[in-house]
Design brief:
The protein has 422 residues and is mainly α.
Length: 422
């Protein structure tokens, strides 16, 4: 789809000298040192630390959850409020989704620099590894510890996102991930030492061979848990009641998880269990607000950073913009039933009976005989005999039989939900 472009002076993605990340011991003092270095522009070691901390399952899942809320939303390109068919192919590609994900990660890392490439007419953006950025000199470094590089400012081929002084949300969650990792190591050591109760052998001091016999008994015990000794010997178990220390470790690790989730998702209950329905509902509202803010953020970046560059390269985007498809409100089953009842009573065509069985996942019955004392639904057709007095000379028609569809289906559904647990 892209038009012919003049060749760039250099393709940065082809000349960077990439090195594998360096994992090292993690401590609060180490994080503080690297954070201060990153604020002065050198971010290589700091981002190595952040990538190391992303091995934490709670942190990585919380980040993926926010990203999934974006990638699962439909992005359209519209002009005069009508979708541009020619841009569908461009949007529905893995590379476009990768670009959107890189945009979203700016909130977590604080800085993102993307080189736009077209290879054989296909869009292939390249996310510059953040370890190769010097935010003090605003340059891309060939080697991660070089002093000079290529400027990423005011370059038509490069998208520059985030502030040079921002270290993102990961900087806020880093201390709690470190606390959790080191606390988890202490917990593992505690379980190793005190998880299996210690056994103490008591031997008869009057028995000359008692000590030797006890030591041999423990040596031969192995993992089977059986001991053979004289009747004068005794074995006691120590450390069986250590549950209080276990509670301290467990509470601390859960607290760290909660702080991580609050830092990334602004709440905890849509990820972890617990709490009342009202609390979960409020936390769900918070998550919806956060996801809406993320969609607006991505939409602005697509329209201000990507769209002008696509226009210069011949894409049919002039006068249009990227938008997220509108999302309807999530309705409970009770609300869906109430709306269906109102639509059925206010319209002549009513609501198809099959809608109720499919929406509420209920088995369809074989039909029911109309109770003569039960009133017909408001939209049911009146019998001809109810249209006032018949003209003289005309023979009255026999009343028509009422079909199962004309029964009071809605009252039966109302009774079903009325007795349902709240």
């Amino acid at each position: 789809m892209a038009k012919q472009e003049p060749k760039k002076a250099i393709n940065i993605s082809n000349v960077l000298v990439l090195t594998p990340p360096r994992a090292s011991a993690v401590g609060i003092d180490n994080w503080q040192t690297l954070m201060n270095t990153a604020y002065r522009g050198r971010r290589a070691a700091y981002y190595d630390l952040i990538d190391n901390l992303l091995n934490d399952l709670v942190l990585s899942d919380a980040v993926d959850k926010r990203i999934r809320a974006i990638t699962n939303s439909e992005i359209l390109f519209q002009k005069d409020k009508k979708e541009v068919e020619a841009m569908k192919e461009f949007i529905d590609t893995p590379k476009f989704e990768e670009l959107v994900i890189d945009f979203m990660k700016t909130k977590f890392y604080g800085k993102t620099v993307i080189e736009l490439n077209w290879v054989d007419g296909k869009f292939k953006p390249f996310n510059i590894p953040r370890q190769h950025l010097n935010t003090e000199t605003k340059t891309i470094l060939k080697n991660r510890f070089d002093d000079d590089g290529w400027s990423y400012v005011d370059n038509d081929w490069i998208i520059n996102l985030g502030k040079d002084t921002d270290l993102g949300l990961f900087n806020k969650t880093a201390p709690f991930v470190i606390f959790k990792r080191n606390g988890g190591a202490d917990y593992a050591q505690y379980c190793e030492i005190y998880g299996i109760p210690q056994m103490v052998g008591l031997y008869d001091p009057a028995d000359e061979n008692g000590r030797i016999e006890m030591e041999e008994a423990f040596k031969n015990r192995g993992s089977g848990g059986s001991i053979t000794m004289s009747k004068n010997g005794d074995v006691k178990t120590l450390g069986e009641s250590a549950s209080g220390n276990v509670t301290i470790h467990d509470t601390f690790l859960k607290w760290c998880d909660e702080q991580i989730l609050i830092g990334i998702n602004s709440q905890t209950m849509t990820t972890k269990e617990g709490g009342s329905y009202a609390q979960a509902y409020v936390h769900g509202e918070t998550e919806d607000d956060l996801n809406q803010a993320d969609r607006r953020y991505i939409q602005r970046l697509l329209n201000t950073e990507l769209l002008p560059r696509l226009e210069k390269r011949g894409y049919p985007v002039k006068g249009g913009n990227f938008v997220f498809a509108e999302r309807g409100e999530k309705l409970t089953k009770e609300k869906q039933l109430s709306i269906a009842e109102k639509v059925n009573s206010l319209t002549n065509s009513g609501v198809d009976e099959a809608y109720f069985f499919e929406t509420f996942n209920l088995p369809k019955g074989k039909g029911k005989v109309q109770d003569p004392t039960e009133p017909l639904p408001p939209n049911a057709k009146k019998e001809e005999g109810d249209q006032g007095e018949e003209p003289k000379g005309k023979k009255k028609k026999d009343p028509e039989k009422v079909s199962a569809k004309e029964l009071s289906l809605f009252n039966r559904f109302k009774d079903f939900f009325l007795n349902a647990p709240q």
